[in-house]
């Protein structure tokens, strides 16, 4: 996996993940699991991530970052 980087789960990521989970839950827009919220927050908080590639269709249409569902 030469183009895959593992990123740390820092406090800023955890806080943003909780915010995302709450916001999506309150809006009723989508079911965002804790794990999905952490993945999304990690991609957004770490500035060097431009695109989130995933096999999970739950990420289709998120607005926080460009997402490609494989």
Care to describe what's here?
The protein is α+β, with helices and mostly antiparallel strands and about 70 residues long. The radius of gyration is 12 Å and the shape is globular. The protein has a two-stranded parallel ribbon with strand order 1-2. The chain is about 40% helix and about 10% strand. The longest helix is centred in the first third of the chain and has 17 residues, at about 10-25.
- Our measurement of the CA-to-CA distance between the termini, rounded to an integer number of angstroms, reads 16 Å
Largest sheet: 2 strands, parallel
Mean pLDDT: 89
Shape: globular
Query: Got a strand count?
Result: 2
Report low-confidence residues grouped into runs of 5 or more: none
Strand content: 5-15%
Short descriptors:
70 residues, single chain, 41% helix, alpha+beta, 2 strands, two-stranded parallel ribbon, 2 helices
What's a concise summary of this model?
By secondary structure, this protein is α+β, with helices and mostly antiparallel strands.
Q: Which SSEs are present, and which pair or pack?
A:
Elements (H helix, E strand, L loop, with lengths): L10 H17 L6 H12 L5 E4 L11 E4 L1
Helix pairs in contact: 1-2
């Amino acid at each position: 996996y030469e183009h895959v980087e593992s990123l740390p789960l820092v406090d800023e990521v955890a806080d943003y993940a909780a915010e995302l989970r709450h916001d999506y839950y309150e809006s009723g827009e989508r079911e965002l699991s804790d794990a999905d919220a952490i993945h999304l927050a990690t991609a957004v908080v770490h500035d060097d991530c431009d695109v989130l590639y995933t096999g999970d269709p739950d990420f289709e249409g998120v607005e926080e970052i460009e997402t490609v569902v494989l």
